[in-house]
Amino acid sequence: MVGGGQLARMTHEAGIPLGIRFKLLSDTPQDSAAQVVSDVVIGDYRDLDTLRAFAQGCDVVTFDHEHVPAEHLRALEADGVVIRPGVEALLHAQDKGVMRERLRTAGVPCPRHRIVADPEDVARFADEGDGFPVVLKTVRGGYDGKGVWVVRGAAEAAEPFRAGVPVLAEEMVDFARELAANVVRSPHGQAVAYPVVESIQVNGVCDTVIAPAPGLSEELSGQAQEMALKIAAELGVVGHLAVELFETRDGRLLVNELAMRPHNSGHWTQDGAVTSQFANHVRAVLDLPLGDPRPRAGWTVMTNVLGGDFPDMYGAYLHCMARDPALKIHMYGKDVKPGRKVGHVNTYGDDLADVRERGRHAADYLRGTITE
């Protein structure tokens, strides 16, 4: 796996029961996955020679992020390295402009959008629709709210162009909430779909995921799953695909983002589904039969633990575990920094209000926001 973050850490964990030998390309020995994987190569994923040396002896190469240069992945494929997902699929998670155009031609509903050249072009884009505000995104490199701006006039639109990459303008969608449809697809086309979840963002960062999405009709849930399965098949995705969606106030679904790897909106599956997103990603990239995606409980809630001003979160284990013996804590081994994702907790049960409260309390106590 290329990338040493928490997604690689949890994917490695899912492969252990299957006896999968796991090799990791990590930026530093301190990265989340590098702390627990035995076979670690320290190197720069942007260097082709490093990637070629790393890939030697691997049956398949997969990723915990989308940032490996496409030209390097093409070179590896030309060398005969098996890459899953392949570069032609992964490109749609790397470049938002490419993704939007491909989804448009496939008939998948998206916000109104186009590539813009400068602030004056942003103003023209706004005039073509309902005016300002509009959303600007750098086509590459953004995540957790980075690389995304909401601008209310041409005078605010200069900053995105300083990044030196194309800028995508999108309409400001009047959405009721954000949803995510997670699916997994194998090389021979077997695919499974997890329940559609609600994803609650705070300051551009995922805070809480509720599975299944409360109050979502069977019709819209089915549409979201079918849309995600269609995208996976159209793009030839192998592995896990997360399709982040807007549910509009008039009852439509629009695609916001794609991720071709395990995803924060699927972390609930570790404890809340028969087969986790990580286990199914491993199965898919190795072309093994996929596991059952059905939920184990009526409700599962994933709550992210963000770093705060209280670095000794482990001292909070006594309280959290004693208060809620059913609580599942997943920490990433990261240094605590304010606002940084350092772990998550999963809670589950039949009473949604209770499940949410338990998750919120544990996450806040681990962060040090509350002390009782």
Question: How are the SSEs ordered, and which strands pair?
Answer:
Layout: H1 6-15, E1 23-26, E2 39-42, H2 48-55, H3 70-78, H4 87-94, H5 96-105, E3 113-116, H6 119-128, E4 134-138, E5 148-151, E6 167-171, E7 175-185, E8 191-193, E9 197-202, E10 205-211, H7 218-235, E11 239-248, E12 253-259, H8 269-272, H9 277-285, E13 299-306, H10 317-323, E14 328-331, E15 341-349, H11 352-367
Parallel strand pairs: 1-2
Antiparallel strand pairs: 3-6, 4-5, 4-6, 7-8, 7-9, 7-11, 9-10, 10-13, 11-12, 13-15, 14-15
Helix pairs in contact: 1-9, 4-5
Structure characterization notes:
With 372 residues, the protein is of the alpha+beta class. It has three domains: 6-83, 3-Layer(aba) Sandwich (Rossmann fold), CATH 3.40.50.20; 112-171, 2-Layer Sandwich (Dna Ligase, domain 1); 175-367, D-amino Acid Aminotransferase, Chain A, domain 1. The protein contains eleven helices and 15 strands. The chain has helices at residues 6-15, 48-55, 70-78, 87-94, 96-105, 119-128, 218-235, 269-272, 277-285, 317-323, 352-367, and strands spanning 23-26, 39-42, 113-116, 134-138, 148-151, 167-171, 175-185, 191-193, 197-202, 205-211, 239-248, 253-259, 299-306, 328-331, 341-349.
Highest CATH level, the class of the largest domain = Alpha Beta
Summing up helix and strand content along with how strands pair, one would put the structural category as alpha+beta
Termini separation comes to: 40 Å
Number of helices: 11
- Corresponding CATH superfamily of the largest domain: ATP-grasp fold, B domain
Q: Please compute the radius of gyration using only Cα atoms.
A: 20 Å
Major β-sheet profile: 9 strands, antiparallel
